[in-house]
């Protein structure tokens, strides 16, 4: 039987949605913290195939999710293009900054990224052997705009100010940066698919700060280009796009980019999305990750509300954004149980 996630991505409406979670491997799990300590630091964990495969498998063992997402990070691409990347404990990522055309020119060519990223492909090959038969393996990359916001600012920023400033000062150089990241992303995701990824997801976590033409040019167009190239090289490969906080721009995003599924953040009303986004195909989402911290009856009620809202079409259950380190694993188990108990064929 075809895996549930692949059926939903192909447009099938299932009795209950398949489920996985953004950031399902992470600090809220004690077994993750133990493996990370063994690896030394976060980036070493990303480049240690056996350990990265182990942390990818941990949430599958614990919760029986329908998908495993490769353990890596969107900031490996900047590193593979020649930026310095490091993580400051308790603060987050730091990168060397790119603020003008000369910085963009100094980046490596897209075809060179495999040199740095080959351990990631090895992680996927291990996972193809070790995952349960009905679990789908998802590969991923950051979308060019989101990756560029980190490459320009050298860190995470609340408003992506430095990237907006670069774009305003030298739009041609900024476009060249977006193009270089898009080309690298095509190389990277293509190699992930060859190594065993059955679905790929593009994370445009900061898409919501792009407005009007900027959204079209720097979120939508690069997604369309990447998706077209992947589908040309790997016919039939399903792609999930996540233009986080796109608001009304979620409508039509799948049609415009060729994505098979659009992932929705928790700011989107499920009833609205069922009418305006799901009519184009599969949607993924969008329980507020706060429920993984607070639990209780509200978690059960909201989980049911999301499932009910999307019941008329193809749906993959997920959170609206990543689970946070303060989440309680018992709440994750309760969410999965609640979804699966909604199967009309299930006597429970
Ligand atoms: O152990 C640790 O302390 C590191 C925490 C951590 C983890 C577990 C980071 C640092 N990255 C990851 C893994 C990761 N990152 C995965 C794979 C695992 C999984 O999903 O289970 C994925 C898909 C990502 C994607 C990612 N990294 C995004 C896009 C999704 C999102 O959350 O919006 C982004 C923006 C990043 C950058 C990043 N990496 C890590 C942090 C703390 C951040 C955010 C930095 C910031 O903006 O301040």
From TrEMBL:
<feature type="binding site">
    <location>
        <position position="73"/>
    </location>
    <ligand>
        <name>substrate</name>
    </ligand>
</feature>
<keyword id="KW-0456">Lyase</keyword>
<feature type="binding site">
    <location>
        <begin position="23"/>
        <end position="27"/>
    </location>
    <ligand>
        <name>substrate</name>
    </ligand>
</feature>
<dbReference type="Pfam" id="PF01208">
    <property type="entry name" value="URO-D"/>
</dbReference>
<keyword id="KW-0210">Decarboxylase</keyword>
<dbReference type="InterPro" id="IPR038071">
    <property type="entry name" value="UROD/MetE-like_sf"/>
</dbReference>
<keyword id="KW-0963">Cytoplasm</keyword>
<comment type="function">
    <text>Catalyzes the decarboxylation of four acetate groups of uroporphyrinogen-III to yield coproporphyrinogen-III.</text>
</comment>
<dbReference type="GO" id="GO:0004853">
    <property type="term" value="F:uroporphyrinogen decarboxylase activity"/>
</dbReference>
<feature type="domain" description="Uroporphyrinogen decarboxylase (URO-D)">
    <location>
        <begin position="18"/>
        <end position="27"/>
    </location>
</feature>
<feature type="binding site">
    <location>
        <position position="321"/>
    </location>
    <ligand>
        <name>substrate</name>
    </ligand>
</feature>
<comment type="subunit">
    <text>Homodimer.</text>
</comment>
<comment type="pathway">
    <text>Porphyrin-containing compound metabolism; protoporphyrin-IX biosynthesis; coproporphyrinogen-III from 5-aminolevulinate: step 4/4.</text>
</comment>
<feature type="site" description="Transition state stabilizer">
    <location>
        <position position="73"/>
    </location>
</feature>
<dbReference type="InterPro" id="IPR006361">
    <property type="entry name" value="Uroporphyrinogen_deCO2ase_HemE"/>
</dbReference>
<feature type="domain" description="Uroporphyrinogen decarboxylase (URO-D)">
    <location>
        <begin position="138"/>
        <end position="154"/>
    </location>
</feature>
<keyword id="KW-0627">Porphyrin biosynthesis</keyword>
<dbReference type="InterPro" id="IPR000257">
    <property type="entry name" value="Uroporphyrinogen_deCOase"/>
</dbReference>
<dbReference type="GO" id="GO:0005829">
    <property type="term" value="C:cytosol"/>
</dbReference>
<feature type="binding site">
    <location>
        <position position="150"/>
    </location>
    <ligand>
        <name>substrate</name>
    </ligand>
</feature>
<comment type="similarity">
    <text>Belongs to the uroporphyrinogen decarboxylase family.</text>
</comment>
<protein>
    <recommendedName>
        <fullName>Uroporphyrinogen decarboxylase</fullName>
        <ecNumber>4.1.1.37</ecNumber>
    </recommendedName>
</protein>
<feature type="binding site">
    <location>
        <position position="205"/>
    </location>
    <ligand>
        <name>substrate</name>
    </ligand>
</feature>
<dbReference type="GO" id="GO:0019353">
    <property type="term" value="P:protoporphyrinogen IX biosynthetic process from glutamate"/>
</dbReference>
């Amino acid at each position: 039987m075809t895996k549930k996630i692949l059926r939903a991505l192909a447009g099938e409406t299932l009795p209950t949605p398949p489920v996985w979670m953004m950031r399902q491997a992470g600090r809220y799990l004690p077994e993750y913290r133990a493996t990370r300590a063994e690896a030394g630091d976060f980036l070493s964990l990303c480049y240690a195939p056996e350990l990265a495969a182990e942390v990818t498998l941990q949430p599958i063992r614990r919760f029986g999710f329908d998908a495993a997402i490769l353990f890596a990070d969107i900031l490996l691409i900047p590193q593979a293009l020649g930026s310095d990347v490091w993580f400051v404990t308790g603060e987050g990522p730091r990168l060397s900054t790119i603020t003008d055309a000369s910085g963009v020119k100094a980046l490596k060519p897209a075809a060179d990224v495999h040199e740095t990223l080959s351990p990631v492909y090895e992680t996927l090959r291990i996972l193809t052997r070790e995952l349960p038969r009905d679990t789908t393996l998802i590969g991923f990359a950051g979308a060019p705009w989101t990756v560029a916001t980190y490459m320009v600012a050298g860190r995470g920023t609340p408003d992506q100010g430095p990237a907006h400033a670069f774009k305003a000062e030298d739009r041609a150089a900024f476009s060249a940066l977006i193009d270089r990241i898009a080309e690298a992303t095509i190389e990277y995701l293509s190699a992930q698919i060859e190594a065993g990824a059955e679905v790929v997801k593009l994370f445009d976590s900061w898409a919501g700060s792009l407005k009007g033409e900027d959204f079209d040019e720097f979120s939508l167009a690069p997604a369309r280009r990447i998706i077209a190239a992947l589908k040309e090289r790997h016919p039939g490969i399903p792609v999930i796009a996540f233009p986080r906080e796109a608001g009304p721009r979620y409508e039509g995003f799948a049609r415009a980019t060729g994505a098979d599924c659009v992932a929705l953040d928790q700011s989107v009303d499920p009833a609205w999305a069922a009418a305006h986004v799901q009519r184009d195909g599969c949607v993924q989402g969008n329980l507020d990750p706060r429920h993984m911290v607070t639990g209780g009856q509200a978690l059960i009620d909201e989980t049911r509300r999301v499932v009910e809202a999307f019941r008329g079409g193809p749906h993959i259950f997920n959170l609206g954004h990543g689970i946070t380190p303060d989440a309680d694993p018992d709440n994750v188990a309760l969410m999965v149980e609640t979804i699966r108990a909604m199967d009309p064929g299930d006597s429970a």
